[in-house]
Each structure stands twice: as structure tokens, then as C-alpha cells.
Amino acid sequence: MEAFLLVIVIVLILIGFSRFSDVKQLVQHQNEELGRLRADLSQIRSLFETGDQPVSLTKHTILDERGAVIEVTEEAAPPIIIHPEPESIPEPVIIEPPVFNPEGVLPPPIPQVSEEPAAPVLPTLPPVPAEPQLSFFQRFLRDNPDLEKFIGENLINKIGIGILVLGIGYFVKYAIDQNWINEIGRVLIGILAGGALIGVAHRLRNSFGAFSSVLVGGGLAVLYFTIAIAFQDYHIFSQTTAFVIMVVITGFSILLAITYNRVELAVVSLVGGFATPFMVSTGEGNYVVLLTYILILDVGMLVLAYFKKWNLVHIVAYGFTVLLYGAWLSDVVIDHKLPAPGAFVFATLFYVVFMAMNLINNLKENTRFSALEISLLLSSTAFFFAAGMVILENSDHKALQGLFTVALAVINFGLATFLYRREAIDRNLIYLLIGLVITFVSLAIPIQLEGNFITMFWALEAVLLLWLSQKSGLKLISTASILVLGLMFVSLGMDWAALYGADANPPMPIILNKAFVTSIVSVVGLVATLRLLNTQTAPFQFWIGQLEVHNYRSFVRFMLILTLYLAGIFELDYQTANRIGFGPNQVILMGCYNLAFATGLLFWAGRAGQRGLMWITTGLGLVGMIAYLATFSPATMELLNDYFLRSEPSLIGFPVHYFSVVFALLILWFIDRNKARLEPLPPILLRLWPWFMGYVIVYISTSELFAHVIYFSFAGSKTGGLAGQPAMQRFDELLIQINKVGLPILWGVCAFVFMWVGLNRKNRQLRILSLSLFGLTIAKLFLYDIQGISEGGKIAAFISLGVLLLVISFMYQKIRKLILIDDTHAPQEPVS
């Protein structure tokens, strides 16, 4: 039965070969016929191009001497075309009617019309529209206008070889299920089938190159799986023997790829080569054998890259190497079984091979580096840096991370120096290597200080990519810079959550910690990005559209301000919470930072002069003022209460609150100064603004009076909480005295200042504010303060208010004329 089936298979193969030879002869005959037809067509075309008239033969009948009719054939003369001259048409005589002109004024002369014909006016051609961007399906139809040819020559053969491999597999499986073939016979059938496919492909390599390469790929796949089954299932070969056979198959396939000059063969060979270790794996986990084999395979691809510029082969080899090495490194790191020296050596060798693979063909041919090649070079450096940092982080050589970073900078600098001496080398590559040197040198110090190197690397890498794109004009690099900057923001947020949210003991040092250093490097990267964007005008191109530079610049500026604010607030919150605890001290310090940041934004907006920016910063300033009135300022009295009467250990917030007062007053001043640039404003805002300013000034004065009286009264006499009951009573009494005696005097002084400023600046609203504050002070004095106040307090309050009121009256009398003029020109409000 087995022999019968084998004979059938051989007969079918012979029939196929004979039929295929007949088809080949038929195709060759048709090619000869098409060649003759093309020659005839070209001869006819040449006759028309030289202008020769074809000779026409004319047959006519004549009578001979005997009267018989005979036919005579003569060459007919070419027809003579006579163009008749057009008859001259007399021009019509136009008789104009007489013009009535009683004054004798001569009419204007009639312009003479030239008899010569005017020059023809050429029509203006419409502008040629830009070529629309085609979709993938439209590009496919453009590149393959004949779908029948594409399916017949390109698609059918690939589907056919797949079906053929499946058919052979099903036949072998059926034979195995029926026990027709033993294990050695099964392996021999697989080897013969794979070899037969490769042999047929070799026979057709000159006539049908694409089809033969597909057959070779199928034959190689059959050989790979046959050897894998012989080792894994039948145990015919040992692991070493199976491994060597597959290596030989891989080398043979690479040789065929070079011989046939087919990139698809190289890809098939490469995929089979990377699959070989898994086909012969026994689960022992010998990483030296695995990584050595991958390295040998990559070296083979390096040799191939020297002869052929096949980027697809480079990408496949690079992707498989990164995937396999990264998976192995992650596994051993998680299991705490990392062989650090071996892992670092193999990572270095892979980096050298792929760096050479990026350079070798371009240096040989002196060609320009494409965006893909530059991206591969950049990513290989990034992966090697990440792998080295992970290895050093999880070994006993963590202190060498900074040295490793400097070493990478030196290597790239040496390579840039070597390439710079070659005049034909692409300048973009030189710029890239110099940028990498700058990046690694910039990262060395933060990494040595245990900085979070991934975020910092992305921050500096975004700047490098943007600078490189502007120098080289590569759109892909500029797009990559935007994506890397987005990754930097995500990574920075994760770093803040992990580092500031952790309960470290002892806590991280102030400023010089990896969280804050990472934030500063990110801010530096954003500042550098903004400086580069100021010199760029071309938009960023994406596959879905384009991004205008001014929009991206506004986004980066906003993210810079947000990053700078969050970096400071997170650092301050972490340090205060770990050193002075949650309490009024922390509130005062956080409030001072917020007010300082709002002041800086208002100053920057005033210098920039942009109306939209002023509106935003003014709104933030008002929010800061409201927060100060509601939270930050009351925290000062709470701090004094807790420090003198309870168990608050520190009074650091009290001197800091002076800065908060200064920043609050500066915010008021900046908003008032920038108010004119925000016009036109609603009239109600203009009327309410002086009242708001007056309220803030009176509030600050009042809170400072309470704080300083308490501070100087208790300074040097801190008590111990409930044990100091007399101190608590004294504290309450001081508050009552300040309220009944100090406030009337202070508010009277404030009202006097408002009146003085209102008179000097001719501001009616300030004068009304002054009078209102005087009225409130007097009402408070007589309705509340006079009850239970001491005699000295009554005397001081009444005398002070009396003197102030007399001075105000004198000022009104002294400059009465000024007041009347001011009131005359002031707009009159309607009386209800």
C-alpha cells in the first residue's frame, strides 16, 4: 500500500512537470508572437513619423486594339486639396445722423480703428490642484490596476503554497494515523517534500522569480517543522543534532536569499532561525546557549546587511532580538536570578551588532540615512540604556549607573568624531549622535543621585528629537518628539504618585531628592522645547492631519507652567507633612507658595501684554486672594493659638506669613494696574473693585493687629496647654481688648487713608468708602465697644476717632473747591 501511494505521488509529480513544460512552451510561443506584433506596430509608427505618404493602387479598365476589355493597375496620385479663397465682402457704410449743435462745438474725434488683427489672447489656465492624499485601498488600486494580474501572479501562488503545505501535512497525518509509515519514514517524507519544493523552486528561479521564492519559503517551513517533530515527538535526534541541523537550514536559506536576491526568503529564513531554539527547547533554561545562538543569527544578518539594503530584514531581526532578550531579562529579574555580568555582556554585544547593522550599508554606499534607520539607531541606544540600568539596578553594581551613562556618551562621541571626518556621511546622523552625547551627559549626574532616569531621559529625548527634526527636516522625527513628550508627562505623573505618596523612613532630603530633580529636568526639557518652537514655522504633520506650531507652543507653555507649579507644591507638601506635620504651619507655607506663584503669573502676563493671558492670570489672582482671606490668613491666628496654648512644636509659619501679606498686596496692585488693559469691563465691576480693595486692606490690617498683639504679649512665655489656664483667660481677654479698643483706632486710620487718597486722586468712590468705614466704626464704638471697655480704652478710642474726624473735616474745608469740581464732572447716578 505504501509503495502504491508513493508511485501515485511520483506519477502526479511527473504529470505536473510535463504539463508545466507544455504550458511553458505555449507561453514562450505567445511571447514570440507578441514580439512580432510589436515589431510591425513600431514599423508602421515610424512611417507615420517620417511623413511618407502610403502608395495607393488604382484599378481601371481600357480597350485594346481588338476591342477587348483589360484591367490596368496604376499608382494613384495623392489627392490635391484646393482651398478656395474667400470672396471679398464689401464693408457696410454706416451713415450717422446729423447732430444738433447750436453752439458750434465740435464733436470729439472718432478714434481710428487699426485694420491689423489684434494679437490673440491666450486663455488663463486654472491652477493645478494639489494631489489628494490616497487611502491604502486607493494606493493599492493605483499600484495594481490589473487586479486579475495581481491575483494570478502574486496572490494565488502564496495561497497555493500554503494549501500545498497543509495538504502534505494532512497526508502525512493520515498515513501516520493508519500506521502506514513509521517514525523514520515520516521524517524522511517531510525532508523529501521540503527538498522537492526547494528543487522545483530552483528549477524555476530564472523564469518565475516570485513564484520560486514562495516555493522555497514553503520548503524551508516543511524542513523546520520536520526536524522539530523528529526531535520533540520521535526523539530521533538529540538536542544538539537537531539544533545543528536547523542552524544549517537557516544558513542555507540565507544563502538562497542572497542567490535569488529575494527579501521574502531572508525574512522566512530569519523567522525560522528565531523559532529554532523554541522548537528544540527542553525547558532547561540555558541562557548562554540561547543568547549565543541569537547573537550568531544577528551577526549573519549583519553580513547580509553589508551586501543587501533590506530594511525589512533589519526590522524583523531587531524586533525578535528585543522581544526575546527583554522577555528573558524580565523573567530573571522577577525571579531574582539575574546573572548580571552575562546579561550585561550580551546586551552590549547586541547593541554593537545592531549599531553596525544601522551603519554598515550606508557607509559602504555613501547613501543618506532615512527616518526609519535613524529611528532604529535611536531606539537601539534607548533599549541598551534601559537594559543596562535595569541590570545595574538589580545587582551589586548600582553605583555604576552614572559611569555607564557617561560611557554611552563617550561611545557616541567617538562614533560622531569618526563619522564627521568622512565628507560623504549624512549630516543628520552626526546631529543625532551629538544629541545623544548631550542627553547622556545631562543624565549622568541625576542618575548618580538616584534620579528617576526614565522620565528624565524622555524629557531630554523630546528636545533632542525636535532639534534633530528642525536640522534634518524629517517629519517622522518631529512627530516622535511630540509622542515622547507625551510619554514624559505620563511618566512624570507616575513618579510623583510613587515617590511623594510613599512613606519613606527617613524621608527624602529637601530639594536634592530624585522626585524633585526629575521635576526640574522635566521643566528644563520643556523650556528647551519652547525655545526650539520659537524658531519653527512649519506645522507638524500627522497621518490624520497637521498640528500648527502656535497651538503646540501654547500647549507646551501651559504644561510648563503646570509642571512648575505642581513640582513645587508636591515637594513643599511632602517636606512639610514629614517634618512639621499637618497643621497651620503647613497651611501658611502652602498659602505663601500659591500667592507667590500667582504674583509671578501676573507679572509675566503684564510683561507679555496679551489680553487673553491677562484674563486668565487675573482670574487666578482673584482665586488666590479669596483663598488667602478664607484660609491662609486665619491660619496665622490658629498657629499662635496652638503654639502658645497647645502642643504645636514650631512657629515657623509666623515669619513666613509676612511674605504672604506682601504677595497678597502685590496681587492687588498688579490687578489694579492691568485693569485698564482688560477694558471694556462691565460697569458694576468697576464700581465694586475699589470696595474689594478697601475690604482686603482693612482685613489684612485687622488680622495683623490681632496677630502681633498676641505674639508680642506671649513671646517668651509659652505654656503647656490645659495646665496654663490663666494664659488661656489672658488670651481671650486680649482678643476682646483688641476688638473693642484696637479696631476702632485701626479702622479710623484706614478710613483716614482712604479719604486722603480719594481727595488727592479725585476718586469719589474712595471717599464714599472712607465715610462708610467711619460710619461703621462709630456705630460699632457706640453699640458694642463701649460696653465693658476700660476707662483708658474709652479715652483712647474716643480721642483717636475725634481727632481723625476733625482732620477729615479740615481736609474737606481746605480743598472744598477741588471736591466741588470733582463732583461736578462725576457722572450722576439715577435717583430711584
UniProtKB/TrEMBL annotation:
According to the entry, what is the taxonomic lineage of the organism? Bacteria, Pseudomonadati, Bacteroidota, Cytophagia, Cytophagales
Question: Whose protein is this, by species?
Answer: Larkinella rosea
Query: Which ranges form a coiled coil?
Result: none
Regions crossing the membrane: 155-172, 184-202, 208-231, 243-260, 287-307, 312-330, 342-360, 372-392, 398-420, 429-447, 453-469, 476-499, 511-533, 554-574, 586-605, 612-631, 651-671, 692-714, 734-759, 766-783, 795-812
Q: Entry's InterPro entries?
A: DUF2339_TM (IPR019286)
Tell me what this protein is called. Answer: DUF2339 domain-containing protein
The superkingdom of the source organism is Bacteria
Which keywords has UniProt assigned to this entry?
Membrane, Transmembrane, Transmembrane helix
